[in-house]
Design a protein that fits this description.
Layout (H helix, E strand, L loop, with lengths): L15 H25 L6 H4 L5 E9 L9 E6 L5 E6 L5 E5 L2 E4 L8 E4 L1 H6 L9 E4 L6 E9 L8 E2 L17 E2 H10 L13
Antiparallel strand pairs: 1-8, 2-7, 3-6, 3-8, 4-5, 4-7, 9-10
Length: 205
Amino acid sequence: MAPNPPPPKRYPSACREILVEYSKHVQSIGEVIFELLSEALGLDPDHLKDIGCLEGHTFGCQYYPPCPEPERTLGHVRHRDPDFLTILLQDQIGGLQVLHQDHWIDVPPLEGALIINIGDLLQLISNDKFRSVEHRVLAKSVGPRISLACLFSTHLEPSNRVYGPLKQLLSPQNPPLYEETTILNYLNSYKSVGGLENALSFHKL
């Protein structure tokens, strides 16, 4: 959807106008969030924007049909997001869980609320100051679940730009935890484990 969105006619006619409008709004929300995250790291508000974290975003639409035996399957297996940040819009069906201290915790839907997930790339450049969120979706029998995820990364094509722990965050007491890598190399690591394992482990020092 950004920075070079496809022609509107390529979107489904049922949601064409609202999808284009939503993309503009979610980009604005992303700008505010990245400013706050930059400040939380002790950096200038525009720092994460300046290094490309807001350079591109894409949408992932998920439809989970109702399952008559939800206890025997998963809607979406456990995974981390391969981006800097994800803004998730979900309906009221529920099913999202996050892993916290080795326990799966329900994330009940709140009407009108958005869910913000830290992705692997933000964990890498923040040197673990921010941690990527491992999550999954349980199947439900009460009805279909629909969600729309907006993933912020660099340009949609895998980038050869090099990323590593931000030098402003490093010191003798806080050495880098990860090697420098390109988005392309990281995505290759992510694909090699199918999102089922922590792809960042391939880039640990």
